[in-house]
Amino acid sequence: MSPLEVIAAKRAHLARLANQAGAAGEVAALDAMANWIPRPRGRELKELLLALEESGVVVKGSSFDAIAMPRHIDLGDPAAVRAALPEMVFIEIKSANQARTKAGFTGFFFALTESEIAAAEVLKTRHKVALYNKLTGELLMTSIPEILARAKSMTWQLSVQL
């Protein structure tokens, strides 16, 4: 690879990281599923996390992107949240937008955060990972244990914010 090719590859990589591809993938996946709502924000998220904690489940708000809801509830109503909590499925969305990702998500490379793995551990069957291919529209519902069982390789990293 020539120095100019390295620079071009770096620019392409940075452009991919800098865009809103991940967020756009989440929106597309949410649009595809009628009973999913995006992760609540503000007071509603605090109320949801408190209800989870009271039920013995401690997760970070960043450990899921959406919630599959069996019916509409008012997330601003603490009693409604607590009543519906056992029926909620917490979903982490991972979206692919590269042609190298094949059917069934073979070749898909993505990261799982410590908080996502921890949420899967405590939520058990109420935590799912939605793999969404923005190019083909394919959606695969899976779990972190299933992903780890299928993984061809794992690369650990430390992410920092300065």
Q: Give the DSSP E fraction (strand runs of 2 or more residues).
A: 15-25%
Pick out the low-confidence regions.
none
String of helices and strands: HHEHEHEHEEH
Number of helices: 6
- The average pLDDT is 87
Oligomer: single chain
Global Rg: 18 Å
C-alpha end-to-end distance: 32 Å
Helix content: 40-55%
Describe the structure.
With 162 residues, this protein is α+β, with helices and mostly antiparallel strands. The protein is built from 6 helices and 5 strands. A 5-stranded mixed β-sheet has the order 1-2-3-4-5. The longest helix has 16 residues, at 3-18.
Helix-strand layout with pairing:
Elements: H1 3-18, H2 21-32, E1 36-38, H3 42-54, E2 66-68, H4 78-84, E3 89-96, H5 114-123, E4 127-133, E5 139-142, H6 144-150
Parallel strand pairs: 3-4
Antiparallel strand pairs: 1-2, 2-3, 4-5
What would the keywords be for this entry?
6 helices, 162 residues, single chain, 5 strands, 5-stranded mixed sheet, alpha+beta
What would you say about this model in short?
The chain has 162 residues and is α+β, with helices and mostly antiparallel strands. The chain is built from six helices and five strands; from the N terminus they run H-H-E-H-E-H-E-H-E-E-H.
